[in-house]
User: Fold this.
Amino acid sequence: MSKTASDALERHYRARRTRKIVIGRCVLAEMSERRRSDWKPSLELMRLREIEAIIFHRHGSILPETDDADLYIEAAAFAQSDQNMIDWCRKWAPWAGEEIVGPIVEQAKKRSRMMRADGVAGLLRVTMKERDDLDLKTIGACDMAKGDRLALAKERKRARDRKRMQKKRSGKSRKDRQTYEAESAETLKPWEAEGISRRTWYRRRGTSVSRVDIYTIGDIPVPTAEKYAPPVPSASGQNTDGAADRCAGLGDHPPAGRQGAEPHGSGDNEAAA
Assistant:
């Protein structure tokens, strides 16, 4: 890569990594964006943020001191997010002191994993409607089982896919299913207006049933094993198939003209002698 191309590529990536405040051609400020390369999504932290969303949705920015307020602190502590619960309570439950938070933290330390989604939903009484309104992912619903939620999620996905495909087809000037069925011949039945049968109407349009020709092979005799048996060689080793075929039509008695005939050439030898 040439130096000019390398400098242009460096300027391109530098512009993407920085934010600038520009007026005309004058750059007033430039600040680099800090990116964490070691960041990974955490379900525990997501659980804690969703509990905070439930508190804000129900009570606002501060959790009131009620009889069931410690359940929110318990759910937050059981999220196992490594969050300091004393600092967390200073923001969301400033009335909760060490005597309330301490025992809950000790119980959370005995757990190796965070509480299940349906367990948190039962603890905080999260309904399916509230779960959908807040778009909760790590908390279940107390009024709907997990299997029913999965089936509902699949049905919603199919509805979204169907709506997306319908929107895609409408952009290509295609008819929807209702319009197609309303304008089809089976719905309008034009043969009744013409006073003919349905079959005649389709035949006149050239859309009758196509002709199907079926060809079958005639019966032929099955060869037997005796007729097509392999030839048996003679004792002298000569092939006698030709002689046997030539004499096959003579029967048991040869013609009279050949009875007593000597081999060819025997009479000539005696006359010469």
